[in-house]
Amino acid sequence: MVVNTDGIENDLTFSVSSELSKKNGEVPANVKKKVLTPRKIRILASVIYGNLFLGSCYSLMAPIFPAEAERKHASATAYGLVFGVYQLVMFLSAPVYGKLVVHLKPGFMMKIGMFVSGVCAITFGFLHHAPDADTFIGLAIAIRTIDALGASAFLTASYTTIGSELPEIIGRAMSLTETAFAFGLAGGPVLGGILYEESIKLINKFLFH
Predict the structure, then answer these.
(1) Is the CB of residue 192 less than 8 Å from the CB of residue 62?
(2) How far apart are the C-alpha atoms of 127 and 136, rounded to whole Å?
(3) Domain-wise residue ranges, the chain
(4) Which part of the chain is the Major facilitator superfamily (MFS) profile domain (predicted)?
(5) Which of 63, 155, 180, 207 would give a disulfide with 193, using CB separation of 3.0 to 4.6 Å?
């Protein structure tokens, strides 16, 4: 009976060489190093920034919008729908973007999604010029719907990008992006309240003094 010891010898050789390499501060040749190139760092930074931006823009309106809607004599149900339609549209559009991302480049989808969300965030600030409650709520729902489409495109493409471009650190990258989004959700209302109060002070200063 012949026992094949080649595999055992290879394992022992690898173990010994690994231990020696660790002592010498070296990495074995057959162990893949997790090196982040400048390109991958830029990709990760872009995804983190995008999630931070989307999270803050989603929650930025929380301390401002209800008061403005009530000033227009809109009901709580009506402006509650403005908040809810965002997640509903993302829920419906994400599977569609999941199929489109195969045909479109993820980077292109991320850029378009971020651009659309940015334009919608700026446009939302002009809603107070709406003449009545129905127009106010209708425009708000329309803007939030388009905003959600842009956000969904970015998020879907960003997850695809992490999986394809950063497979070595996919767990860490996902945790960082989720942390950034959560930080945006938490900081958005505070930032929105500060901007709202400061804008009122500036308006009163330049118009009434």
Answers:
(1) yes
(2) 6
(3) 36-208
(4) 43-209
(5) 63
- CATH domain 36-208 topology: Growth Hormone; Chain: A; (1.20.1250)
- DSSP letter for each residue of 1-30: -----HHHHHHHHHHHHHHHHHHHT---TT
* Predicted confidence (pLDDT) at residue 179 exceeds the cutoff of 90: yes
Q: Are 121 and 147 in contact (CB under 8 A)?
A: yes
Coil, helix or strand at residue 75:
coil
Extended strands (E) in 139-183: none
Q: What confidence score (pLDDT) does residue 111 get? A: 92
Q: Quick one: pLDDT at residue 204?
A: 58
CA–CA distance, 197 with 160 (Å, rounded to integer) = 39
